[in-house]
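yo

u said u wanted the structure for the complex thing, so here. seqs first:
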Amino acid sequence: MSTRRSALSALVSAAVLAAPLALAGCTAGSTAMVAGGPSTLAVGFTAEPQNFDFTTTDGAAIPQALLYNVYETLVKIDSDGEITEGLAESWDVSDDRTVYDFHLRDNATFSNGEPFTASDVKFSIEQVKQDWTISLKSGMDVVDRVEVVGEHHARVVLSRPSNSWLRSMTTRIGAMFTPDGVADLANDPVGTGPYDVESRRRGDSVVLTRNPEYSRPDDPRPEPDYGTVVLKYYADATALNNALLSGGIDVISGVTAPDSVPQFEADNRFRVLQGTTNGEVVLAYNNRRAPLDDVRVRKALTYAIDRKALLQAAWGGRGKLIGSMVPPTDPWFEDLSREYPYDPERARSLLREAGHESLRLNLRIANLPYAVSSAQVIASHLKKVGVTVDIEPLDFPAVWLQQVFTDGDYDMSIVQHVEPQDITTFGDPEFYWGYDSPRVQRLLSEADTAPPREYISDMREVARTLSDDAAANWLFLFPNIVVAKNEVRGLQANQVSESFDLTGLRRQGSS
Amino acid sequence: MRGNLVVGGTLVGLVVVTALVSFVWTPLDPQAVDASVRLLGPTSDHLLGTDKFGRDVFSQLMVGAQTTLYVGIVAVGLAAAVGVPLGVLAAMGPRWLGELVMRTSDLVLAFPALLLAIMLAAVYGASTLTAMIAIGVATVPAFARVARAGTMQVLSREYTLAARAGGRSRWWIAWRHVLPNISGMVVVQSSVSFAMAVLAEAALSFLGFGTAPPTPSWGRMLQESQELLAVDVRLALVPGLAIAAVVLGFNLLGDGLRDRFDPRLEARR
Amino acid sequence: MTAAERVAAGAGPAAAIARRLVILVASVFVASVVVFAFMAVLPGDPAQVALGVNATPELVEQTRQQFGLDRPLVTQYLDWMGGLLTGDFGTSYVTKEPIGPQLVDRLGVTLWLVGAGMLVAVLIAVPLGIVAAVRHRKPSGVGVSAAAQLGVAVPAFLAAIILVQVFSVQLGWLPSGGWTPPAYDLGAWLKGLILPAVSLGLVQGAVLTRYVRSAVLDVQREDFLRTARAKGLRPYPALVRHGLRNAAVPVVTVLGVQLATLLVGAVVIERVFVLPGLGSMLLDSVAARDLLSVQSIVLVLVVGVLLVNFLVDVLYTVLDPRLRRS
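structre next:
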C-alpha cells in the first residue's frame, strides 16, 4: 500500500465516519431521559429485558422489571412466601376447592385510563390459555372457565382442585391486562401498577415513572415514594459494583460477585441485605446415561463433593445448603443438607462396588460465573476419588439449551433453576435430568389435587425421595444479596417472587 | 539497537523456560482447590498467595506460561503456514490469482475476528484452541501481505531476473531465492503477531470465549480477579504484568530482529 | 494494487472505477453469504432460546414458523438480501422491533468512542513521538520510547479496569460506565466518554508514538531540515516549520490502518464501560441467537470497511495524474 493511498484512506474514513455521527446525534437524543434528584432512584441489574412482552418471551428479566411495578396480579407473594392480597382484596374458595371467588378492589385503573374490573380478569386469564406461548402458561391449564359475577367480583372455576394454582397466580401468568392495552406488548405495556414505562435505551436502561392513574388513598402507601425509577443494566457484576461505588446507581438488585460484598459491608455508606431466592444451583446427573444411571455412582459423586467447601470457595460462603430441590420459603421445606456428608472414602468404595475404579465424565455447564466457579471446585474434589472431569462451558442459554437440555447429551451439568416449585420437573421423565421414578411421578400428580395437608406431606416425600436417589446434587441455594445506599429503605432480603418489587421502597426521612 | 534483542530475548526466554519447567515441576498443584486457604497473601508456602479457590497463584502463573506459548504457536503457526504460501503465490502466480488472494485478504481483514471466535466457541465449546484458530485466521492476511511484498521485491532483483533468463522454473526460483530471502521478514512478522495473539487471547478470555477452566491461563486469571480488585489488587497485577512482559518481550524481539534483517532501518536508530 | 498495476489493468479512470465497483459488489456478496452461512451453522435454536426451558416441541416448532426459520435457507437468504436492498433490515426475533434504527443508534455510540479514542491517541502520540525522535540519543527520548513499548504491551481492558478503579471508585471524579446521549446532556456525555476514550486511546497512542518517532526520524535526515538546522534554527522550530507536514503522511497512514483495530478494541471497552454500542449489540444478539440482527451488524461492519477502501481507490484513481494520462 502506497503512503499516498493510505493517507487518502484516513481522510475518507473520517468523512464516512462523520455522516453517521451527525445522524446518531439526532436519534440518540430523541429518547427521553429523566433528570436525577431526590425522587429518582437508580437500580442496577445484570439481565436486560429484550422486550416487554413476557407472554411470548421467556426469561427472568421482563417480570423482574414489570411484575408488581407495572403489571399487578390478583394475589401477591410476600417475602416469606405467603400469599397476600393484590388486586383482589379478598377471595373465597369453595369446599371442593374448585371455585375461587375474587373480590376486586374498586380503585384500580390501568395506565391508559381504563378502570380495572372483573371482565379484565376474564380477559387476562383467557389470554394466557389462548395467546401466550411461554411454557409457564401451562399453570393455567387447570382453569375451566372464568365468570364475571359483578363489576368487582370474578369467579374462576377449576376443572379439578389444585394446590399450586393460586400460588402460580402470583407469578407473571397472573398479571392483569386490559383489552385496550395489549396491542404492542413488546414495547408499550399497560398495567395497573404504580409505575409506567416512560422510555428505554437498549443496552443501557429502562425508565419507569409514576403511573398518573395510580391512586390508592386507603392504602398504607397511597403512591410510590420515588416518582422515577431508572433500571440500569450492566453486563457483569463488576461493572454493577463499580456503578454503586462511584454513585452511578443507588441499589444493586442482586450481587453476583459474592467476594466483593465485604467491601460494601465495611463501608458505612451502604447497607447489605442477604436472603434467599428460589434459585437452586444444581449439579445435574444424567440419570439416563451410563454410568450415572447407576445410583451407586450418583451417590458416590454426591459423597465426594464437599458442598460446604464448595460454597465457601465458589460463592464466598454466601448461600444456603439445601440438599433437595426445595427453597426454604416453600411450605414443604425440610433441611436435607446433611444427608450426604463429605466422605471421600465412602465415595471410593461405592465407585469400586459399581465397578468404576476410575472414571472420566464431562461437565457441560452454562458459561455463567456461579457455574464456572462451582465446576472448578467439583473437578478438584472428584479428582481425589479418581474421577476425571472435563469442564466444557457452553454458551448460555443457546448452546446449553440445545446440547444439554434438548438433546440430553451430557454426563453432568450445572445450572441454576429459578422457577418457583421447579421440583415438579422431576416428575417428567423426558426432562433433561432423565430421572424416571414412577413413585415420584405418582406422588407429584396426586399432590396437586390432594387436600392441603396431604399436599405438604406428599411434596416432602418427593423431596426426600429425590435426595435418597441422588437424582441430582443440589449444590446450594443462590443467595439474594441486595446492596443499597443507606437512605433507601423498604428493600426485601428474600427474593421469592419473580418481581424486583419497587412498590415498598421509600427514602429514609420521608413519611 | 542491540538492547532490544537482548531484553526481548531475555523476556521471551524466561517465559519459555518457565513453561518448560512447569511441565515437570510446579510448587503446588495449580488446580487443587482448598477453601481453607483462599485469598491468602504471599507466604513461604504460596510465593504469590492464593486465589479465591485457594489455588497457588505462583503455580498457576507457571502453567499459564504454557497456555500463552501454546496460544502464540498455534495462532502464528497457522497464520504463517497459510499466509506465506498464499502471499508467494499471489506474487508469482497468474494475475487473477494474486488479485483473488489480495481481495480475499481485504475481506478477512474487514471481517470481525471476534465473531469467528464466538462462532467457533459456540460450535466446539470455548477453548484455547478455538480462540487460537480464530486469531490465526484473522492473522493470515498480515502474513500474506508481508510474503507478497517480499516476493515482489525479490523478483525484481537481478539474480532472480538472471535465473529467469537462464530458464529456471518458477518453483525453482521460489524455493531457491524467494523463500530464503523473505524468511527474515516472516520471522519478524511472527514475533509481532505472537505478541498480538497473546493480547487477543487475553481479550477473548476476558469476554469468556477463551481458555476453558480449570486450565490456568493468564487471561482467565485476570478475568477472575476482576471482582476482587477492591479486596486484593495482587490477583490482577500478577497475570497483568505477566501478559505485559511477554508482549513486551516479543515486540522488542521483533524490533531487534527487524534491525538485524533490514540494515536500512538499522541506520536510523 | 499499485498504481502501475492499475495502469496496466485498465484503460482509464472510468474503467478502473468500474472494475473496483465490481470487486466491491462481489466482496459484499461473498461477505453476506459467509455471514449467512455462519448463522446457519451456529448451534442453538432461536425459537428455543426465546421460549426457554419447559417449552413443548410443538410450541418451538410454531415459533420457528413464526420466525420464518422453517423455510429453505436459500429463501431465507434471498428474503434477507431483498429487504436489505430496500433498506429494510427486518424485525428482530428478540426485541420485536425493526433492526435498522437500532443499528444506527448503536453505531453512533461506537463511532463516538472510536473517534474520541483516536483523538486521545493522536494527542498522546504526536508530542511524545516528536520528543522521542528529536531527543533519540538522550535519556528523555529513550525513556519515552521505552514507555511507548510498555504501553503497547498492556491489554486495553486492563487499562480500563485500572482507570475505573482509580478515577471512578476511589476518586469518584468520573462515572464508571453508562452512556448519556450528547443531545440530552452534553456535560454528562463528555464525562462518560472520557474514561472509555482514554482506555482505548492509551494503547493505540503507544502504538502510534512509535510510528511518529520513526517518521520524524526519517524527516530529520532529509536535506531541507539539515539545511534549516545549519542556518541556526533550533531543533523544534525547524521541525515545526519544515518537517511536520512531511512526517504526517506515514503517520496518517497508520491511523487509517488502526481504525479497524480500534473497532475491535471498542467491543471490549464497550463491555467494561457498559456502553450501548455496536459491539455490545453484537455480543447480546449472538447470545440471544437473534440471527437477523447478528447478520446485519456484521454486514454493516464489513461493508463499512470495504466501502472506505473503495472510496479511497476511487479518489486515488481520479487524482492520480499517471492514470489520467493513460
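The mean pLDDT of chain B is 86. The interface with chain A takes residues 31-36, 38-39, 52-54, 121-122, 125-126, 208, 212-214, 226-231 of chain B (CB under 8 Å).
cya
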